[in-house]
Amino acid sequence: MTNRVEYYLSLEYPCELNRDAEGGTYFAHHPDLPGCAAQGDSPGEAVANLNAARRLWIEARLEDGLSIPVRTR
């Protein structure tokens, strides 16, 4: 399964980054990966946390036998 996880991690998925209304927290998510989201105190932290969340999201989908969208440029 590790090779499959690495394969999906190598794909480029769009990332959306937003700041909360009060300007304190940043939220990042992959629109193509439902439920794959993270937050952080800075844009960089939010994206780094999203990268970690993406790995966990992919691993869980593979373990559950669920599909994972394949993104091509």
List the helices and strands and how they pair.
Blueprint: H1 2-10, E1 16-19, E2 26-29, E3 37-40, H2 43-63
Antiparallel strand pairs: 1-2, 2-3
Helix pairs in contact: 1-2
Which labels suit this protein?
alpha+beta; Double Stranded RNA Binding Domain; 73 residues
How would you describe the overall organization of this protein?
The protein is of the alpha+beta class and 73 residues long. It has helices at 2-10, 43-63; strands at residues 16-19, 26-29, 37-40. The chain has one domain (2-63): Double Stranded RNA Binding Domain, CATH 3.30.160.250. The protein contains two helices and three strands. It has a three-stranded antiparallel β-sheet, with helices on one face. Helix 1 packs across helix 2 (43-63).
What is the CATH class?
Answer: Alpha Beta
State the CATH architecture.
2-Layer Sandwich
Estimate percent helicity: 40-55%
How much strand content do the residues show?
15-25%
Distance between the termini: 24 Å
- In terms of per-residue confidence, which ranges show pLDDT below 50 for 5 or more consecutive residues? none
Radius of gyration: 13 Å
Helices and strands, in N-to-C order?
HEEEH
Number of domains: 1
Mean pLDDT: 93
- Helix/strand structural class: alpha+beta
Order of strands in the sheet with the most strands?
1-2-3
What is the tally of beta strands? 3
Overall, the morphology is elongated
Largest sheet: 3 strands, antiparallel
- The number of helical runs is 2
Report the CATH topology name.
Double Stranded RNA Binding Domain
| Quaternary state of the chains | single chain
